[in-house]
């Protein structure tokens, strides 16, 4: 008798745990997902071209052409906490670097990821970001060379101008290569 009751309870337990869920209305599900944006999504590929052109101009030493994609109030920040505020300050810095510090500069193995942040998860600003990873090979006026992988995050304003760059790099490698 105990075995019979145990079998009946097992069957009931199995049936209770295995209840099928009612089917969702597919139209409602589709409409809901379209009306509520995801926290982040892929952005337009045009931002990859802006990033590529920027690196090409910087490598060629054409800082003026690179700066055309910047907003007047742009901020250029390094992972070390150093930063430059304003398009003119960024332009002056990079013109000096390309004329007096860096002899040649090249970028390779570039990967771009344009992302639209709809709902910030942390401290990032909403809007379009272009994330870039690449290898940098630089020859300095000191005659020394530096190679390292870098990462850059660029934020675009409503006019598709870069208003913030966060540049992640190993500054020690650069400092060593620029020592006389």
From TrEMBL:
Q: Can you say what this protein is called? A: SnoaL-like protein
The record ties this protein, via Gene3D superfamilies, to: 3.10.450.50
Where does this protein come from, organism-wise?
Lacibacter cauensis
Q: Which Pfam families match?
A: SnoaL_2
Domain named SnoaL-like: residues: 56-156
InterPro entries in the record, alphabetically? NTF2-like_dom_sf (IPR032710), SnoaL-like (IPR037401)
């Amino acid at each position: 008798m105990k075995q019979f009751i145990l079998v009946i309870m097992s069957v009931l337990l199995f049936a209770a745990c295995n209840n099928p869920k009612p089917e969702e209305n597919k139209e409602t599900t589709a409409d809901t997902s379209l009306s509520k944006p995801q926290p982040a999504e892929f952005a337009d590929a045009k931002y990859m071209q802006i990033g590529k052109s920027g690196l090409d101009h910087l490598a060629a030493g054409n800082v003026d052409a690179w700066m055309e994609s910047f907003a007047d109030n742009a901020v250029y920040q390094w992972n070390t906490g150093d930063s430059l505020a304003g398009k003119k300050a960024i332009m002056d810095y990079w013109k000096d670097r390309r004329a007096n510090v860096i002899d040649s500069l090249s970028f390779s193995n570039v990967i771009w990821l344009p992302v639209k942040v709809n709902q910030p998860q942390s401290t990032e600003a909403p809007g379009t970001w272009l994330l870039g990873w690449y290898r940098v090979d630089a020859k300095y006026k000191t005659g020394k060379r530096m190679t390292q992988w870098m990462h850059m995050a660029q934020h675009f304003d409503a006019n598709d101008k870069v208003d913030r760059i966060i540049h992640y790099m190993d500054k020690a490698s650069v400092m060593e290569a620029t020592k006389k």
